[in-house]
Structures are given as structure tokens and as C-alpha cells.
Amino acid sequence: MTLDFTPAPGAAPLRRMVLAQAAAETRAILRNGEQLLLTLIIPVLLLVGFSLAPLVDVGAARRVDFLTPGVLALAVMSTAFTGQAIATGFERRYGVLKRLGATPLSRFGLMLAKTLAVLAVELLQVVVIVVVAYLLGWRPEGLVVAALPYLLLGTAAFSGLGLLMAGVLRAEATLAAANLVYLVLLGCGGVVFPLSAFPEGVRPVLEALPIAALTGGVRAVLAEGAFPLAPLGILAAWAVLTLGLAARTFRWE
């Protein structure tokens, strides 16, 4: 038997490269203390704090039943938008994206890897938030898996918004803008405070925000057992708009 030690240079299959990069992206997110605070600790603290303390008037609904869908939507926004925008902005500034562009991993493969990493972190968030909510007495009317279309479309919409911001702004500006948008959407997107608490004149504008559509859709599924289509349409429109603009304007250097 003859052994062949002839070198066989060449790139690994795309699937293997994407999975390896996705694993690296996921580890980077989970090892980053600031991102872990944003993506997991803050949503859990909001859920526990506002569920146990009578800080918000949610009408006849129990606080934990009202808050859990909103916190799930907040988790998606924190990972797909805020965390991804900040991380991608600084990767572009420090030349990481430029160096990755010189590897066999294509830009499509890199974006796919980032998407898989976001979904992996979101899966962890959903599991943790659902477990904490159950411990607080939450019992959903609908199945958690029925909220999956809203969560996936919300991920696409917020990912597009995050990449759009990271692709056109400097890293420092992205950091400030992403955190500001996060706080604004947290306050007026129906996550913690019901939209009925706002003046009637601004409610149509608030309802058109991606966080309000995501929160409203997930809340309708889990708190009412319904499956409204309007939030899906709003999220789909945001996804098409933001991803399209990000593809046209994103700068890799």
C-alpha cells in the first residue's frame, strides 16, 4: 500500500467554513461581557423586576403574562440589532472584515455565519427567558413555537437595521446610535409599557415600529392564542427595506 503525501491545497466546503465562522462568532458574543449584559442579563432583570414589582399598569392582565412576550422581543432586538451593529462597526474599523474578505469565505458566507450566530444566541435567550417566566408563574395561552415566524422576521428586520447602521457610520457613532435607538424602542415599543399608555395621535406611528410589531405579534400568540398577520406584514416590510439598504450601502473598509 502506497501512501500519497501530495499536498492538496484548496478551500474547505462552504458549509464547513460557515459553521466554523458561526461558531467563532457565537463564542465571541458569549465571551463579551458587555454584549452578554445587553443580550441576556438586562432582559432577564427587566422581566423579573417588572413582574414582581407593581411598576407598570397592564390592565387586567397579569404582569408576567404581559411582560414575557415583550422581553422575548427585546432579546431579539438586543442581539440582532444592537449587539450586531456595535460588533460589526468595530470589526470594520479594526480591519477584521477586510481580512476576512481576503479568505476563501465569501461575503455571503460571512453574513450567513453572522446570522447563524445571532440565531444561536437568540435560542439561548428564548430558553432562559421562558424558564425564568415559568418560574415566575407564566403560563402562555399559545405555544412558544407558534411565535417563531414573528421572531425570525423580527431577526431579519433588526439585523438589516443593525448592518445598515454599522455599514454607514463610524464605529463610535454606531455605538452611540445603537444604544440610543435601543433605549428609545425599549421605552415606546410596547415592551414594558403598553401602547395604550401613549396619546392616541402617536399610536399609529408607534405601532409601525418593528419592535412594536414584534412585541404585539408575539404577545397575541402567547397571551391570546391568536396569530395576527398585520405584525408579520410590518416586520416583512422592515426586513426588505433595511436589508436592501444595507446591501446597497454597506462599506467593508
How are the secondary structure elements laid out?
Elements: H1 14-31, H2 33-52, H3 63-93, H4 96-101, H5 107-135, H6 148-168, H7 171-188, H8 203-207, H9 210-224, H10 230-249
Helix pairs in contact: 1-5, 2-3, 2-5, 3-5, 3-6, 3-7, 3-9, 6-9, 6-10, 9-10
How would you portray this structure in words?
The chain is mostly helical and 253 residues long. It has one domain (14-51, 59-249). It is 72% helix and 0% strand. It contains ten helices and no strands. It starts with 13 loop residues before the first helix and ends with a helix. The relative contact order is 0.15.
Task: Name its key features.
72% helix, mainly alpha, 10 helices, 253 residues
Structural class by SSE content: mainly alpha
Percent strand: under 5%
By oligomeric state, this entry counts as: single chain
Helix content class: over 70%
How many domains, in number, for the residues?
1
Order of helices and strands: HHHHHHHHHH
Shape: globular
Distance between the termini: 51 Å
Q: Number of DSSP helices?
A: 10
Largest sheet: none
What average pLDDT do the residues reach? 87
**Segments where pLDDT lies below 50 for 5+ residues?**
none
Q: What is the number of strand segments?
A: 0
Briefly characterize the structure.
This protein has 10 helices and no strands. The chain has 253 residues and is mainly alpha-helical.
